[in-house]
Amino acid sequence: MLNSLHIRNYALISSLQIRFDKGLTVITGETGAGKSIIMGALSLILGHRADTSTLFDQSEKCVVEAVFDVSGLHLEDFFTENNLDYQDDTIVRREIAVSGKSRAFINDTPVTLPLLKEFTSRLIDIHSQHQNLLFQNADFRTDVVDLFAGIKSQVAEYQKVLSELKDSERQLSELKQQHQAALEKQDFLQFVVKEIEEAHLKENEQEELEQNIEFLTHTETIKSNLFQILQILSDEEPSAVSSLREAKNLSAAIASYRADLDEMNQRINSSYIELKDIANELNSLNDRIEYNADELEAMRQRLDFIYSLEQKHHLTSVSELLNKYRSVKEELDNFSEDEEQLKKLTLRCQQLQDKAHKCAVQLHQSRNKVLPALQTQVLDYVHSLGMHDAQFVIKLETSTTLLKNGIDEVKFLFSANRGVEVAELEKVASGGEISRLMLAVKSTLSEKSVLPTVVFDEIDVGISGEMAGKVAALMQKMAQRRQLLVITHLPQIAAKGNSHYLVYKEVEGNTSRTKVTLLDAQTRAVEIAKMMSGEKWGEATLKAAQELIEQ
């Protein structure tokens, strides 16, 4: 339950501390006094967004702090899973900085707004008159049935499967698009592979061809130079070889006379042997070199073919052509893998579709099973609120497609008068009838809910007279099972409160401030008298107010 609420520097509130008890707490005050401001501050605790326009003093931060008694709610695992320190009296705090930046804390540990919302949604439920419009929301109508049936965990499991299905369907769609694009260029890729395969390219082939063509093109010059070198080395008289041989013989004759002469002789001898080998190799090379016009033409044609292939594929070397061949071949291989992946993903989607549909059917059966009891309980409350001839029917329309919460579209059908066929609630019910029906629904769900605190924010709009007393009695009954905070304009409801707070506005200088005070028995009777007759209440009205409280 909510133990206390501290508000500082929010809207018209400079600083405010409110303590709450068990049972029914009523909050009253004139229009514009600031009751909605208190609800706005409480909404910050529930994780709603805020901005700097809510600051009372634009030079200081806003702080809203609530203390909740969470003992007995079995929330220890939630604290452990989210690395929070568990305390029976848990402190939830929101801070709005001057810059507009917002921070949230649970027991002084910083938390995100989604985590704050998840936590406080287990502690408190706020219902305002504007929420009567929720009857028009399909998700709300479905939630009413699911909460009564106690199948929220089943719904979560279904939504998990549905999420997996949508992810798989998205992946399948993307893969199909990729596969279709691959199909469109498959023929081209196969042509590229075949063309490069049939070219029988080899690494460094282009460089070797260019070198060989250069060599054959200059065969005549090469042979001419080789011939002249051979003439110098071997054929002329005296030739280089014969002259070096004579020098070798002369050095050999004196080599024994001193070590340096012997060393010189060895070097001359080595030079002679080397020069003789060179002459022999040159002679052999010269004999092997022949100009072959056919071979030269074949090389040129092959090189031209390679050049044209490179130009066709916007490449500059055989190495790049071979790399392209390998990459295209791999892409074609992947095409086969894509087909296999398509089969697997298609099967996965079908399996998830079947599983989701099975879960949705189970949800439909669970919902359908509780409809008679839910309709009966809501109608019991509706009848107790004075609509004795009202009819309320919940209809499940099944869809052929999987929806967010299954295959059911939940319809609320209503009739306030005997003999009038039921129709969709939002089309036939008045504002007061919708308010009473919402109260009946909330009362029914409160019996199933473990929420320790429920807040009703002026949901009694359009209700008066004898009906107000019945609404008050119903709220008093609800408050026996949980903490109930009610902001009201009705004296009948205010009189039922275990505690009563008055919200009022006080002017200090040029500034208006919202204040809250806890009323005692005497001031409470006066406040209810004012609610009954306005500022001109008299002793008779005061006595009536006291009797209303005593009842």
Structural description of this entry:
The structure is a single chain. The protein has a 6-stranded antiparallel β-sheet with strand order 2-1-4-5-6-7. Strands 8-12-13-3-14-15 form a 6-stranded mixed β-sheet. It has helices at residues 35-45, 76-81, 113-120, 138-149, 152-199, 205-217, 219-235, 240-254, 259-288, 293-312, 318-384, 425-428, 431-446, 465-478, 491-494, 521-533, 539-550; strands at residues 2-10, 13-19, 24-28, 62-69, 89-96, 102-106, 109-111, 124-128, 391-403, 406-415, 423-424, 453-457, 483-487, 499-508, 511-518. The two termini are 26 Å apart. The longest helix is centred in the middle third of the chain and has 67 residues, at 318-384. 27% of the residues are buried. 56% of the residues lie in helices and 19% in strands. The protein is of the alpha/beta class. The chain is built from 17 helices and 15 strands. Among the domains are: 1-123 and 451-518, P-loop containing nucleotide triphosphate hydrolases (Rossmann fold), CATH 3.40.50.300; 180-336, no CATH class.
- Per CATH, the architecture of the domain at 1-123 and 451-518 is 3-Layer(aba) Sandwich
As an assembly, this protein is single chain
The CATH superfamily of the domain at 1-123 and 451-518 turns out to be P-loop containing nucleotide triphosphate hydrolases
**pLDDT average, as an integer?**
87
Poorly predicted spans: none
Number of strands: 15
| Residues in helices, as a percent range | 55-70%
CATH hierarchy class name of the domain at 1-123 and 451-518: Alpha Beta
Radius of gyration: 48 Å
Quick one: overall form? elongated
The CATH topology of the domain at 1-123 and 451-518 corresponds to Rossmann fold
